[in-house]
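Tutorial, part two.
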Amino acid sequence: MAAVFGLGNPGEGYALTRHNVGFRVLDELRSRWRARPGERSAEYREWVAEYCGKAVALVQPLTFMNESGAALKAWRERRAADDADLLVVADDVYLPVGFVRLRRRGSSGGHRGLASIEAALGTANFARLRVGIGAVESQGLRGYVLDEPAAAEAEAMQDGIRVAADAVECWLDEGILAAMNQFNRRVRREASES
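Running the prediction step on this input gives:
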């Protein structure tokens, strides 16, 4: 079973914040695929669907961002899942709003949710899809990621969420290399055009 693990913070107060882009990508996929509710525990909520003939779990941690690894660990205790079939979706302050970047492995880049996932897995060798939320001075980072974007930025972010969902579908259908070639190239092309 493939798993798309979207990072964010649970609760209505966080729903539209920049940090919850991972949750919102899951929402987009749930809607597209008409995913049905799966298991739910104190640590996570799951929806299940089929895409391109593959069973897919959409998993949302309920442990808050910095403890995302605990949710993944709890989910994996109940599901047989290989690291190669895992894609983690997270926000990224180093990418412009709405841009996406896929990697088959890498570092957390200072993202505490990704660092928690790495600690739980004992490796950084898992695919990750980063969705840009725009840059900010490091001293204002916490407030920035926990704020909701203004209207114009929210529209660009929603476009990025749709592109990220497209990238997830490409990853499932064609694999990580094809998805990286298609979607990372798109980011470079758009950046060079602006």
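Residues 2-193 form a domain with the Rossmann fold fold (CATH 3.40.50.1470). In part three we will examine how such features are distributed along the chain.
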